[in-house]
Amino acid sequence: MRYTLFGRSGLRVSELCLGTMTFGEDWGWGASKEESRRIFDRYVEAGGNFVDTSSNYTNGTAERFVGEFVASDRDHFVLATKYTLTDRPGDPNFGGNHRKNLLRSLEGSLARLDTDRVDVLWLHMWDGMTPVDEVVRALDDVVRSGKALYVGFSDTPAWVVSQANTMAELRGWSRFVGLQLPYSLADRSPERDLLPMAKAFEMAVMVWGLLEGGVLTGKYRRRGEEGATRYEGASERELAIGDALVAVAEELGASPSQVAINWVRAQRARALVLPILGARTEAQLKENLGCLDVELTDDHLRRLDEASPFSAGFPKSFLESDGVRELIFGETFGLIDPYRP
What we know:
By secondary structure, this protein is an alpha/beta fold. It folds into 2 domains: 3-310, NADP-dependent oxidoreductase domain (TIM Barrel, Alpha-Beta Barrel); 312-341, no CATH class. It is 38% helix and 14% strand. It is built from 12 helices and 10 strands. It has helices spanning 33-45, 61-70, 99-113, 132-145, 158-171, 194-200, 236-252, 256-265, 282-289, 298-307, 316-319, 322-329; strands at residues 3-5, 12-14, 17-19, 50-52, 78-83, 118-123, 148-154, 176-182, 204-208, 272-277. Helix 4 crosses helix 5, helix 7 crosses helix 8 (256-265) and helix 7 (236-252) runs antiparallel to helix 10 (298-307). It is globular, with a radius of gyration of 21 Å. The two termini are 27 Å apart.
């Protein structure tokens, strides 16, 4: 396990984060407390120090488990949780991004985690109602109070995050150093605007949905090998990706899951991407951690990209076309060495 700076901050986090949405069986699936402890211990043994949870995961059970697991060495761990989602469906103020729900939710999280502060507090999902300035100022107050050290956005449009960070910089409020989103070989849509935005603001990108609910484990393929399943709900594109993953995995002596995770890890040129590993069993986590021992070549990445082609569309494809560049730069585009990466 290696470590990296968490976006534009001095915080050091492990290159793989442990997600804990599976901690607890309150939702009818997930891991028991004993299995959750084994998953946690396996992650720590591998060198991981970054644990991500949420106020609503398994109705608060995940936070209680995590609080107990980190208690013996709290300062070693980078502990992240989220606020936004309701835990009283009939009450309009028990969910959302507004200040009242933020403080109520955070106090509950701190109690369940048995700690006086979290290292990272995420806004979980954008509610489309709360003014951006209310969110930015309220989270700045939380940081100034010491109840959270850093803040980030999860599942939020790029224009909102851009507005929030620009506002924070202009007004001297706490900037957002992290972004959390789904990203995988099967869903490259964040490459359109979210990843370029994160790179511009030097935000760490925490990635969930790495395996697309099992589609990228090699379980669903077009080919008819023993053990392969022709999943009726999978698209031809997903099946083609599954075939490519299995082929690369067989060459490397790895699992398709490890290849899928490492494809995400290989996108560091687009942004500082950090995968979140979620597992219901210790065996699943052990397999996913095995990605640290697998290295994809440029040829492997090319073949995987070809199986999952992506076009950013307008305006990127328009502005980078030869004709438009000639309109802007004349004959000089190739003569200019831009200093920005």
